[in-house]
């Protein structure tokens, strides 16, 4: 089946690409929605500009659309993109939805209106097992934003590994931090993994911290060949 993946570059949308490829789908496009609003309800914002480089690393064409990111209004821009994909022969959209009913319900409604099947392969997954799986598969994911008790500036840019997940389990018990960040506790970015033909090398970045939250912003990055 010809499919596209709603792609932000974060861990969940990257895992959606992996799941689509594992299912032997023909992934024709990555669909990246770039919001001008940092408080968008629907779309991942930190380092969304890196999706261009990630698409090259994955060797999958990127369809990039922009939105003002106004609640509910931003759905019109997504629907137009869905219609464009439908017109290009795409039959289904994969998403990285885990538990967000707000996002999943709206995406499914748009898919139904346009005539696209919506597939969320990790919906209601066990979050701890899911995070362990990401690491065990060999994906390199960094934390690009934090906004929760227990997650300080030292977490920005940190790679998610088993030690990191162990700490998240402890923070979950102490502060109820969601292990997979479904409560908006953190944002992530994939920079390498088994489906990547090349990896992302970060050359310049900056950390911005505001009282109890912050972001890790990549200012310059390149593609780097992977060792055989």
User: What form results from the Cα inertia axes?
Assistant: globular
In which order are the strands of the major sheet placed? 3-2-1-4-5
| Cα radius of gyration in angstroms | 17 Å
- The SSE order reads EHEHEHEHEHEHEEE
User: Would you tell me the overall average pLDDT?
Assistant: 92
| Sheet with the most strands, sense and barrel status | 5 strands, parallel
SS class: alpha/beta
The end-to-end distance, rounded to whole angstroms, is 30 Å
The tally of strands reads 9
Runs with pLDDT <50, length 5+?
none
The helicity comes to: 25-40%
Task: Summarize the helices and strands and which ones pair or pack.
Blueprint lengths: L1 E5 L4 H12 L3 E10 L15 H8 L3 E6 L6 H14 L4 E3 L6 H14 L2 E3 L7 H11 L2 E7 L15 H14 L10 E7 L5 E13 L2 E13 L3
Parallel strand pairs: 1-2, 1-4, 2-3, 4-5
Antiparallel strand pairs: 6-7, 6-9, 8-9
Helix pairs in contact: 3-4
Question: What does this 3D model show about the protein?
Answer:
This protein is an alpha/beta fold and 228 residues long. It is 32% helix and 29% strand. It contains six helices and nine strands, in the order βαβαβαβαβαβαβββ. The strands form two sheets. It has a five-stranded parallel sheet with strand order 3-2-1-4-5, sandwiched between helices. 40% of the residues are buried.
């Amino acid at each position: 089946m010809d499919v596209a993946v709603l792609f932000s570059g974060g861990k969940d949308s990257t895992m959606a690409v992996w799941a689509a490829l594992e299912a032997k789908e023909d992934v024709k496009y990555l669909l990246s929605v770039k919001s001008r609003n940092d408080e968008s309800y629907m779309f991942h914002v930190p380092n969304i500009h890196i999706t261009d480089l990630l698409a090259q690393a994955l060797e999958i064409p990127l369809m990039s659309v922009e939105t003002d990111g106004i609640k509910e209004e931003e759905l019109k821009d997504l629907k137009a993109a869905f219609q464009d994909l439908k017109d290009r022969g795409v039959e289904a959209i994969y998403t990285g939805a885990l538990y967000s009913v707000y996002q999943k319900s709206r995406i499914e409604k748009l898919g139904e209106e346009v005539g696209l099947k919506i597939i969320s392969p990790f919906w209601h997954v066990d979050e701890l097992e899911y995070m362990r799986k990401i690491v065990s598969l060999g994906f390199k994911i960094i934390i690009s934003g934090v906004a929760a008790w227990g997650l300080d500036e030292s977490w920005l840019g940190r790679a998610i590994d088993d030690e990191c997940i162990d700490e998240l389990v402890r923070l979950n018990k102490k502060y109820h931090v969601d292990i997979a960040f479904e409560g908006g506790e953190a944002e992530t970015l994939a920079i390498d993994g088994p489906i990547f033909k090349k990896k992302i090398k970060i050359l310049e970045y900056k950390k911005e911290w505001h009282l109890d939250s912050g972001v890790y912003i990549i200012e310059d990055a390149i593609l780097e060949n992977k060792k055989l």
